[in-house]
Amino acid sequence: MLTKIFLALACAVNLTTFAQQYDSSRYDNGKLKAEGLKREDGSKAGEWKYYYPSGILMSREHFKNGVLDGHIEYYYPSGILQGREQWTNGLLEDSASYYFDNGALSR
Q1: Closest to 82 (Cα-Cα) out of 52, 46, 45
Q2: Contact criterion met (CB below 8 Å) for 75 and 85
Q3: Within-domain flag for 16
Q4: pLDDT tens digit sequence for 7-34
Q5: What are the tens digits of pLDDT across the range 41-68?
Q6: What is the pTM of this model?
Q7: Does residue 54 sit within a domain?
Q8: Between the CA of residue 37 and those of 16, 48, 52, 59, 79, what are the distances in Å?
Q9: C-alpha dihedral over 80, 83, 88, 91, to 10 degrees?
Q10: How many domains does one find in the chain?
């Protein structure tokens, strides 16, 4: 019985893994613009990273069912953290923090 349950769970995990596909886009200069996973329906899933044309990380966002869900970070072109937000089912929660480009917390 336990073996059957394990096999069923393993198949379910494999199906969800194959249902998601890596996707990316590039700027005209060839540098990476965005990368992450897309579901079969074309919606974003899991972690997505966005980059400035220079190649520096612009933001790290998390998606669930095609909407923002989880911890989001934004960066200045210098690479310094600009802000952190918490999203749930596409709605911004009250736990957001933003920073000046010198790293000091903005109030």
Answers
A1: 52
A2: no
A3: no
A4: 455 544 444 445 789 999 999 999 999 9
A5: 999 999 999 999 999 999 999 999 999 9
A6: 0.78
A7: yes
A8: 12, 7, 19, 15, 23
A9: -130
A10: 1
